Every structure is written in structure tokens, then in C-alpha cells.
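user: can you give me the structure for this one chain? C-alpha cells are fine.
assistant: on it. calling the predictor now.
[tool input]
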Amino acid sequence: MMNIGRRGIHYLHTLNSVPKNLIEEGQNRVVEASLTLIRERAKLKGELVRALGGAKASSSLLGVPLGHNSSFLQGPAFAPPRIREAIWCGSTNATTEEGKELNDPRVLTDVGDVPVQELRDCGIDDDRLMNIISESVKLVIEEDPLRPLVLGGDHSISYPVVRAVSEKLGGPVDVLHLDAHPDIYDCFEGNKYSHASSFARIMEGGYARRLLQVGIRSITSEGREQGKRFGVEQYEMRTFSKDRHFLENLKLGDSVKGVYISIDVDCLDPAFAPGVSHIEAGGLSFRDVLNILHNLQADVVAADVVEFNPQRDTVDGMTAMVAAKLVRELTAKISK
């Protein structure tokens, strides 16, 4: 039914004779249907987890299949279903390295995807789309003990997600950001919502007290200047051997509302994850990333895994499995 309505609204939008208020009314119905879908799924999963008892925090997957804010390729829009498929692939089991069982809904649930393309097809602009993403994240957080684990999508989604987490929890969070790029341009190529500008929006909004960027190896003078402007702690790969001990023994989140982890799959060396839009040699090994995650002392309140591009993956889906493994280990870090 939603697809039929979406096609109809898209058609009406092309007719100059259609009153603006009629188009806006149709857009509002699609937005409300989208949020209702997330709200009811989150409510159902939250009730299930609470009924089972024993969970103080439980990871809940939320897909945000958005790719149009990428400066190069839009393939990350297709990532969420591929990551889900890989999570439950029969080639591996459902136990994380820390011993959490993903089959247990007290550990992991799934509330589905924000219907990004449907919203864009009916004329929703990016300002409103970002608000809808934020509202969707808040709906998950409202269902205690669910905590959102977001599947991107390009890295522009981190801004509305972190904003929602900060606003819902009532204060800034510490952010651990693993990436080949700092994504902190003020307005990349004229797009304030570019995936290369998401952390500028986060920092200027006051949603993060402390931002640590790890794995950086493609950074311009503006990236460094913006980092200094916002007081960002940037750990570049050229000094990783020196920084390793510190990064593998992080303690974050004191005196703030919690810790948010954002993992861009291209933080990894392309030998481990070739299925990304921006291939940048000289990155972290997969075990480097797991060592940082496993040893992190923090109350992780939300996380995202972004920038996996299925259109550039190997034929056997190796990067999908890598992204799924990151999600699995983040699940273990969040759930308790």
C-alpha cells in the first residue's frame, strides 16, 4: 500500500496544477506511516525483551539505506540488507567473540529500515529527512532497554543519529570514530549534509563532548584545521604504532551520557574490506579494530556501521561478512 501511495504522490508532484497543500498532505501521510512502522516494531521488540527480563541494555538494528550524500558512489544505500544477510549466514555461528548469543532477543533485535527512498520519492528534502532519521532513532531509544545499532548507508547518517542520541539522553556523548577520513569538512562540495561533513555538524551542534578519530590516513589541511577548531583528537595511521597502546586501552564516557561508536568500514585496510567507495591503502587490520573495541571501557549507548558498498564487494561477499562481524562485536559491546 505504501508503494502505491508513494508512486501516486511522486506522480502528483510532477504536475504543476496540483495544489501545494495536497502534496504536503501526501508527504505528511508517508512520513507518519514511516515513523509508525518503526514505532510499532520498536514497541514490539521492547516488550519482548522486557518480558524475557535480565537485560539492562539490548542492541536493536535500525537500517538507514541512504547513499545520495556520498561524494563519489551511492552504493552504500544497498548495504543494510546485505549486512543482515551476512549476520545470519550459515557459514558462521551466532556467538560473538565475547560469548554473547545473537539468537537471544535480549542481546539483539531488529526494527527494520527507515524507508529513505520512499521518503525521497515523494519529495522530502534532506532537512526533513534528517529529522525523520533522528525521530526514528528516538523511537528505538524510548523502548528501554533497546539501544540503536544503525546500519548505513553513507556516513551522513551519523549526524542525525548522534543528534538523536544526545537529545534523547539529555546531553553530549563521547564519540569514538574509526575511519580513513575525518569527515569534518564544513560544507563539502556545497552540501552541508555530505558524508564528508557529518562530524562538523555533530561538533557544531554540541552533541559530542569528546571526538576521537582513529585510522585517519586521507586528510587535507581543512580536515586538520577543522579538527583543531573543534578540539578533535585525530589519530593518524602514520603514528598508529606509537598510539596503539593508548588506543587499545581507552576509557571513555566519564561525566557524559555515554559513548557512541561510529565505524566506517574503510577504516580497515582494503586488503580486509575491498567493498567500500573510497579505497585507501594503509589502514587498520581487522584485529586492530577488534582490540580497540574489546578493550574499550565505556557504556556504549549507540553505534553505527557505515560506508559498506555492496556494488564494490568481491563476488563471495567478503566485505559484507566483515561488516557483519563488526556489527556482531558491537552488539556484544552494547548489550548487557
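assistant: here you go. The chain has one domain: 20-334. The domain at 20-334 is CATH 3.40.800.10 (Arginase; Chain A).
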